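User: Last request for today: this protein with adenosine monophosphate, please.
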Amino acid sequence: MNVLVIGSGGREHALCWAVAASPLLTKLWCAPGNPGIAQVATCVPIGALELPQLVTWAQENDIDLVIPGPEAPLVEGITDAMEAAGITCFGPSKAAAQLEGSKSFTKDIADAAGIPTALWERFDTSAEACNFIQRRGAPIVVKADGLAAGKGVVVCGTEDEAIAAVTAMMDEDVFGEAGRSVVIEECLTGPEVSLFALCDGEQALLLGSAQDHKRVGDGDTGPNTGGMGAYSPVPVFPPALEHACLEQIVKPALKQMAHRGTPFRGILFAGLMLTEHGPKLIEFNVRFGDPECQVLLLRLKSDLLAAIQAACDSELKNFDLRWHDHAALAVVMAARGYPEAPERGSVIRGLDKAAGPGVEIFHAGTATGPDGELLAAGGRVLTICGTGATLQDAHNAAYGAVGKLIWPEGFCRRDIGKRAL
Ligand code: AMP
Ligand code: GLY
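Assistant: Here's the final one, the structure of the complex with adenosine monophosphate:
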């Protein structure tokens, strides 16, 4: 099978790494890829959002299967565009990707399917939104309805904060179109976990769960990021609870999507909060998380490509996923200044020394310099992953490798997995 992965982050490096190991693979490409991905795939210099160019390239190169990593091309309709050209694409249609593209769409699905989630309302004018905030009081959560690069959610401790968030989104247009309408929600509390399911439109197979670390600083301080680290398994989310969430949250959503004529095929990522009243849905994403993908794929024993093929053929019913017994933990190394203004161009050394048994290093924002040196070229730059019999062993492997990197302009959180250890 000729496969094209779309994207250039640590998640896509992990996807390429897993697909490259498949006996079903003939040749692997990645657009646009990065220097780490170039070690396992041939990189194609086309951006993840250049849909017509990607389709033409895939046709000319006899691609059998496209695997998009990030949400943006899915929300833009890459699956519809590829399938219109006769190329199988493992991901939701543009219509089904609304599960990530619109918060109110997801809340409607949750209500229609009886999925436990925070009480909510949608507003199209700031006057009505502010009125509601004054009636409900704080704490309260304000969300831009559309995609806002992970920054569209404000958890507000006071009414003033909530009103300021509404004003910024609806009157000052800080998120443009994405903030034209807002969702206002009841504030939930409890540990957050991410659950992943492989879906074929009807069936869903559990791919496991992970815990992310969204804030940039130790102890969950500082601004939100794409994710600074993850680990799996998650002790507060044992297998029985994972399965209950698959049955009560993921499967009802799939059924509702199919019922509406927009079946969901791809990776469904449920962001959950384990409240004292049970698990509740915070959001759906329509793709793997980054860096959650890295830890999940390090634990997956089955052939990822065979599993994806089964999902594309609507054959998940007869597919059985297998796992390694070991735990995995990922530490994201970011460039100084991330997330506001990451410094670019510093040299990273010591990758060969950091690599070793129980260690896997995935590239994200890296580039190759004129003399072949490895340079930082983005915010999140590397995901350093450790595996081991226990989470503590995985932690030791990952941080041991971090200690061998020579990159003074890089940083990481020192407390990934601390809650579980
Ligand atoms: P989202 O972009 O939907 O993932 O939201 C970002 C973060 O906001 C989540 O990871 C939660 O920590 C927080 N959040 C979202 N919705 C709620 C809620 N209803 N109650 C409390 N925290 C929330
Ligand atoms: N790490 C969270 C995400 O990928 O959305």
